[in-house]
Amino acid sequence: MVNAHAPVFPDGFLWGASTAAHQVEGNNVGSDFWQAENHGTGDLADRSGDACDSYHRWPEDLDIVRDLGLNAYRFSIEWARVVPAPGHPSRAMLDHYRRMIEGCAERGLTPVVTLHHFTSPAWLRAEGGWTSEAAISHFTAYVRAVLPILDGVPWVCTINEPNMVAMMVTRRANGMGHADPSFVTPDPGMTAALSRAHAEARELLASVPGLRSGWTVANQNVQDHGAGPDRTAEMSYLIDDQYLDVAKGDDFVGVQAYSRLRAGRQGVIAPGPADRRTMIGWEYYPLGLEDAVRHTAARLGGSTPLLVTENGIATGDDGERIEYTREALTGLARAMADGVDVRGYLHWSLLDNYEWGSWEPTFGLVAVDRTTFRRTVKPSARWLGQLTQSPAAALGQGGAA
Question: What mean pLDDT comes out for the span 102-122?
Answer without folding.
Answer: 98
